[in-house]
Amino acid sequence: MTNNTRTAESVTEGHPDKMADRVSDAVLDAILREDPSGRVACETFLTTGLVLIGGEITTRSYVDVDAIARRVICGVGYDRPNYGFNGNDCAVLSTIKEQSSDIAEAVGHSTEARSGAARDPYDVVGAGDQGIMYGYACRDTASLMPLPIVLAHRLARRLTALRREQRLPYLRPDGKTQVTVRYEGTRPVCVSSVLVAAQHDPDVEHQRLVEDLERLLVRPAIEEWLDEDTSIMINSSGRFVIGGPASDTGMTGRKIIVDTYGGYGSHGGGAFSGKDPTKVDRSGAYMARCVAKHLVAAELATEAHIAVAYAIGRAAPLAVSVSTRGTGTVPDEKLQSAVCDAFDFRPAAIVERLDLRRAIYEPLSCYGHFGRSDVDTPWEHTEWIEDLRRSV
Fold first, then answer.
1. Of 211, 217, 325, 374, which has the fewest beta carbons less than 10 angstroms from its beta carbon?
2. Which one, of 357, 274, 279, lies nearest residue 26 by Cα?
């Protein structure tokens, strides 16, 4: 058996990029609560003392962007001056404008509708952008996600919980985790290294922090995957007092690999946060994950990789491809045909099937969009397995 390693990272909700994602998704959710048909492309930039929110939004509702940003930032934990960033007194600037009329026309009246070729209402709504959207699933874990990203998220979530529950009251909101897993062939066998970076108060001793986090974070979270050779590195750079936007800018969409599969499968490059579901960056990727998970859950493959290509303004995708990387029970060409029979990749069909015009996105802005059971993620359901099996 070939030995190899795979690595993935995660970040806490106090990481500046994730704070930006959270603000953008909070604005999206606020609009969808009042106007489910609103068009939203909201991006956030954070730096010392400043939150800048921009993008294109068309809606019948009104939302208080300033109040939303401050609520999110304080809720994450940046609510006091000595942290270097304070949601109560930072400047919040909004430069939001309406969606381009050209894009609005392309989405509202698809290529098919304009040419008279629309067959049903799903053909009327065009994709909100061009691009390739990917989905992935594998047998590593019960959630059919790669083990490295699952463990990295588990550590990041627990790091936040230790701070919020005041079990380690010296912790601050920013943090990162990284896990390297050793495989024998395609089977994960152990964690070879763990890396944790945890923001902390200035008066905590480094050795105390290392001992506390190994005892209360690393071992309880991933004990079953550790062995005597596992390397555990905690704050390997030393002090980590200055964090969040005081140490690094934050921007929506800069943690797209953390949001998906930790570098496994593929990523088309488009971010999710702040985008309404007419943007196929989001809805197309959710459907691709749904299909990949169905293929593995139906035992038609042990690994599934879905790619869907879109053209802006066109409802039907340009291409749908399926790769099982040699693990399929039938040829990939047959699975691809079955997938296209069982699933509709047109944006309006995806939005309806996955019920995406709801305020469900803010909780997804950290700890990944896939493999979640703690939040409402319809794309993780596998209720259409029999439809798929009948199509094979």
1. 374
2. 274
SS3 state at 189: strand
DSSP secondary-structure letter at 98?
P
Q: What is the DSSP letter of 127?
A: B
Range 163-193 burial, b when 16+ CB lie within 10 A, else e: beeeebebbbbbbbbbbbbbbeeeebebbbb
The predicted structure's pLDDT at residue 124: 86
Name the token pair of 269.
């490059």
In whole angstroms, how far apart are CA 308 and each of 62, 109, 238, 380? Answer: 34, 21, 44, 18
Predicted confidence at residue 106, as pLDDT, reads 59
Pairing of strands 171-184, 3-11: antiparallel
Indicate if the pLDDT at residue 242 is higher than 60: yes
The pTM of the whole model exceeds 0.70: yes
58: helix, strand or coil: strand
pLDDT tens-digit readout, 320-350: 999 999 999 999 999 999 999 999 999 999 9
Domains and CATH numbers, the chain: 3-10+147-243 (3.30.300.10)
122 exposure class (CB count in 10 Å sphere: 0-12, 13-18, 19+): buried
Give residue-wise pLDDT tens across range 116-160. Answer: 877 888 888 888 888 999 999 999 999 999 999 999 999 999 999
Query: Residue 339, SS3?
Result: helix
Q: Which amino acid is at 113?
A: A
